[in-house]
Amino acid sequence: MKSIKFASLLIIVSLVFTSCKDNKKAEETTTPEAVENTVSYVLKPEATNVKWTAYKTTDKVPVGGEFATLNFEDKVGATPEEALNNLEFSIPVSSLFTKDETRDEKLKTSFFGAMLNTELLKGKIKYANNAYTAEITMNGVTKDLPLEVNITDERRVSMKGTMDLKDWDALGALESLNKVCFDLHKGADGVSKTWEDVAIEVSTYLRDK
Q1: Which residues contact residue 164 at a Cβ distance below 8 angstroms, ignoring those fewer than 6 apart?
Q2: Residue burial 163-198, b: 16+ Cβ < 10 Å; e: rest
Q3: Which residues pair with 33 in a beta bridge?
Q4: Dihedral of alpha carbons 50, 135, 157, 75, sign
Q5: Element spanning 81, H or E
Q6: Spatial CA neighbour of 167 closest among 143, 195, 148
Q7: Beta-carbon contacts of residue 12 (< 8 Å; ≥ 6 apart)
Q8: Looking at residue 26, what is its pLDDT?
Q9: What is the percent of the chain with per-residue pLDDT over 90, rounded to a whole number?
Q10: What is the torsional sign of CA 175, 176, 179, 185?
Q11: What is the pLDDT of residues 13-51, one digit of tens each?
């Protein structure tokens, strides 16, 4: 009888130790679950501004301005490229601002007013083959504008491009503007000139959603 009890005790002790070892082994071999990457990038209109630079006189004197309003939906992406790609936007021409009310009115009426569909400038940012372009619709014409894009480690974004107004059939509008600004666009040589290239610069910030 004592032998049976002793044997039973050995079996119980053996089971307890085996169970402890199995649990410890299970704990040691458990692989932690991978942490999901939750970083995201979102572009917001209130953090974005659009500046432009036009030129007058033979000496190509710069005249700067901006559009105070830029409309688009919040665009989210897992990368900066994804956040920017296919971002559709619209810019009210009425938001044009140069710090000179007389100049603003001439640009709105004699330049944009001489075009088709002058209420809004519309477009879409596109990213393909490691290059950015802006598909811009102005004066009833849609063309791609190549962009030079710089994104810093701080998520600040700069997009630059130069529009040639003839690509948007806007030389007639440019002539209309030069007529009302004829004397103001004269240089030292007495020639009145308004250049057809306009530099565009967009600055924005990619937030973390």
Answers
A1: 196, 197
A2: bebeebebeebbebbbeebeeebeeeeeebbbbeeb
A3: none
A4: positive
A5: helix 80-84
A6: 143
A7: none
A8: 46
A9: 74
A10: negative
A11: 444 444 544 444 445 555 555 445 577 899 989 889 999
Compute CA distances 62 → 23, 55, 56, 59, 201, whole Å.
76, 4, 7, 9, 14
Helix (H) or strand (E) holding 19: helix 2-29
Phi, psi of 59 (to 5 degrees): -80, 0
DSSP string over 104-125: HHHIIIIIGGGSSS-SEEEEEE
pLDDT for the residue numbered 33 = 56
Q: Which residues contact 36 (CB under 8 A, 6 or more apart)?
A: none
List the structure tokens of 106: 């001439």
Please count the other Cβ atoms lying within 10 Å of the Cβ belonging to residue 123: 22
